[in-house]
Design a protein that fits this description.
Layout lengths: L1 E5 L3 H13 L3 E5 L2 H7 L7 E4 L8 H10 L6 E5 L4 H9 L4 E4 L4 H15 L6 E4 L2 E4 L4 E4 L2 E3 L3 H12 L7 H8 L10 H13 L4 E4 L3 E4 L4
Parallel strand pairs: 1-2, 1-3, 3-4, 4-5
Antiparallel strand pairs: 6-7, 7-8, 8-9, 10-11
Helix pairs in contact: 6-8
GO cellular component, one term: protein-DNA complex
Subcellular location: Cytoplasm
Protein name: Response regulator
């Protein structure tokens, strides 16, 4: 999952970026509110972590701007403002969830996973396709009930395909979902990861649609 983080506190922002990366997320962090507001248009983010007390522009104004411009990306507000009135305002302006500082990274990760699952109509933390199951709470993969070891990138790619069933994913979109702007991506990286998934989970798991990209499963 690729997450947009808008947080001006260097210590908190760095902790979230490092911690959530270890949970398997791809994080783009902006400590400037206006840059973060505009960044939403630059990449296919799965969710946003938004602080409210930002210099130059308030987080609620960023949220209102996004919703007025039909940006429906799930937003988790993460702020020190813990008054009930503040929470109600955040939700009324279009936030999908609200969490007060201090926080536990495990809870932030779980809330982000839940927001993204709901956006894709997936209520359970376990996503299945035929005999393959991915437990997104613990990032455990099984095939025919037997555990399969995947790398972090392979897990991200599998999750992307499982959440995008019946969709064709272009190579460019896959790269944008798996990598942040600071990552160094070689031209054949996506093909290598797909080859590895086919090897570990079955050659028919992902099909190539020439000139378009890739899709989950056999052609119907």
């Amino acid at each position: 999952m690729r997450i947009l983080l808008v947080e001006d506190d260097e210590l908190i922002g760095d902790g979230i970026q490092v911690g959530l990366t270890e949970f398997g997320f791809t994080i783009d962090w902006f400590n400037d509110g206006l840059q973060g507001q505009n960044a939403i248009y630059s990449a296919p983010y799965d969710a946003v972590i938004l602080d409210l007390s930002l210099p130059h522009i308030d987080g609620l104004d960023i949220l209102k701007h996004w919703r007025q411009n039909k940006i429906d990306t799930p937003v988790l507000i993460l702020t020190a403002r813990d008054a009930i009135k503040e929470r109600v305002s955040g939700l009324q302006f279009g936030a999908d969830d609200y969490l007060c500082k201090p926080f536990a990274l495990e809870e932030v990760a779980a809330r982000l996973q839940a927001l993204v699952r709901r956006r894709h109509g997936q209520l359970s933390s376990i996503i299945q396709y035929k005999d393959i199951a991915l437990d997104t709470a613990n990032y455990v993969v099984t095939k025919s009930s037997e555990p399969v070891v995947l790398t972090s990138r392979e897990l991200k790619l599998l999750e992307l395909f499982l959440l995008s069933q019946n969709r064709v994913l272009s190579k460019a979109l896959i790269q944008e979902k798996l990598y942040s702007w600071s990552d160094d991506v070689s031209s054949n990286t996506v093909e290598v990861h797909i080859h590895n998934l086919r090897h570990k989970l079955g050659k028919d798991l992902i099909r190539t649609i020439y000139g378009m990209g890739y899709a989950l499963g056999d052609e119907k």
